Amino acid sequence: RKKGMVNQPDIQPLTGWDSGLFDCFEDASTCCYGFWCFPCLACTVTGRFGEFSCLPACDIFCGGPVPPVALAMRVAMRNKYGIKGSIGKDLMTSCCCAVCSWCQMHRELKHRKEAPVVINMQSQTVVMQPAPMMMMAPAYPPPVHAVSTGFVQAH
Which family is it part of (predicted)? Predict the structure, then answer.
């Protein structure tokens, strides 16, 4: 190792969101969930992301023009998954298109959860050999009369 060199972590390239902000009809169930029960969708997304699921209630009761939980969740999700964007874009999206933003985050979590896992299921032939047989001496001594005659009876 050369003097003055610092180990840098492997940096992964940033990616885009799995779906666009207005791609609601790519996943009709998420679209309907967001339209008919938006607060429930927001709580579901927050819970699946690992946060307290009732956190979006703060946006309803404590939020002003900027919904703090929607903004924080969007920034946290981008950072965790390495998604391109900026806090400014997240702010505009959370303020102007809140339902679409939560739907996009829901689709992203569904996509991340359903990422394929490859399992190698190659068959392997297992050959079993029988254990070798060994002759063993009896565990008890033969009777005295059998030893003298040279004949041991099986019991």
Answer: Belongs to the cornifelin family.
Instruction: Give pLDDT tens digits for 44-64.
Output: 999 999 999 999 998 888 867
Secondary structure of residue 16 in the 3-state scheme: coil
Closest by CA position to 103, among listed 45, 55, 52, 63: 45
| Structural contact between residues 31 and 103, judged by C-beta atoms closer than 8 angstroms | yes
Residues 6+ apart with CB under 8 A from 113: 48
| Coil, helix or strand at residue 83 | strand
**Tokens encoding 40:** 């429930």
Using pLDDT thresholds of 50, 70 and 90, give the confidence band for residue 78: very high
Residue 20 to residue 1: CA distance in whole angstroms: 45
DSSP 101-146: HHHHHHHHHHHHHT--------------PPPPP-----SSPPPHHH
- Is the confidence at residue 43, as pLDDT, over 80? yes
Q: In this structure, how many other beta carbons lie within 10 angstroms of the beta carbon of residue 122?
A: 4
Per the DSSP assignment, residues forming a β-bridge with 83 are 15
The answer to whether residues 127 and 66 touch, using CB atoms and an 8 Å cutoff, is no
